[in-house]
Amino acid sequence: MTENIEKLSALHILVTNDDGVHAPGLLALTNAVKPFGSVSVLAPDHNWSASGHVKTLSRPLRVRETKLADGTPALTSDGAPSDCVALGVLGILRKKIDLVVSGINTNSNLGHDLTYSGTVTAAMEAAISGIPAVAFSLAEPRDTSEEKDYTLSQIVIREVVKNILDHGLPRGILLNVNIPYIDVEQFKGYQITRQGLRVYHDNLVRRKDPEGRPYYWIGGDPPSGIVEKGTDIGALAENYVSITPIHLDLTAHHLISTLRSWEWG
């Protein structure tokens, strides 16, 4: 028992997100992981949703102290979510980081969303540095203005983190976790999934500014997806939590031999 307590007290968890340091999901995530060890919060000072994997090299990054809504000390940066992780790893946080958790994102991150998501790419930045990482997203409805219910999310977060601490993650791997926005009583359990197929409904909005110069806005309805068993989209549709292991090797290995058979030069 004493040994387990010492292990937990030595564990250092970095919490970040892409919705901004004062987003309620970040506070819920921070409180969910506090029982596992010491927690540092380093998150963007504004919303970076759909920012993708950013590394800011063209300007200085600012970091300042702030507090979460419950008084928890935090650091915030004008950099992207992936910048926040890099800053923590490179020395803003003096203590070695053992685990990075990102979220809780407003809305799900499914299928091809992973390439856009600041929540997921913050976890990717950790994986690049060899640190176990998890991105948490909540599939809450887009048209709700009511206070968010994170009861199920916090149960899921603790279960996922416990399993990572018990079993570890291979180097270069992160977990993308999507949580259905339902009551605990409706929750069916966990599924280990693959990425599903997102369907985007983007359109181009053309407008003119007061001086008559054209500008453009990418609009359209929210994305949908193909509901298929074994995928992240299919799991959420059936009220399961989706846990998708993601690795950073984007190579299409099955195509290598085919490309080698082509005539080159």
> How many structural domains are formed by the residues?
1
Low-confidence runs of at least 5 consecutive residues: none
Question: Class by helix and strand content?
Answer: alpha/beta
- The helix content is 25-40%
Q: Secondary structure elements and their pairing?
A:
Elements: H1 2-10, E1 12-16, H2 24-33, E2 38-44, E3 63-67, E4 73-77, H3 81-92, E5 99-106, H4 113-116, H5 118-128, E6 133-139, H6 151-167, E7 173-180, E8 189-192, E9 198-208, E10 214-225, H7 232-237, E11 240-247, H8 256-260
Parallel strand pairs: 1-2, 1-5, 2-4, 5-6, 6-7, 8-11
Antiparallel strand pairs: 3-4, 7-11, 9-10
Helix pairs in contact: 2-6, 3-5
In short:
The chain has one domain: 3-Layer(aba) Sandwich (Stationary-phase Survival Protein Sure Homolog, Chain: A), CATH 3.40.1210.
Question: If you had to describe this structure to a student in words, what would you say it looks like?
Answer:
With 265 residues, the protein is α/β, with parallel strands linked by helices. The protein has a single domain (2-196, 226-260), classed as Stationary-phase Survival Protein Sure Homolog, Chain: A. The chain is built from eight helices and eleven strands. The strands form two sheets. A nine-stranded mixed sheet has the order 3-4-2-1-5-6-7-11-8, with helices on both faces. Helix 2 links the parallel strand 1 (12-16) and strand 2.
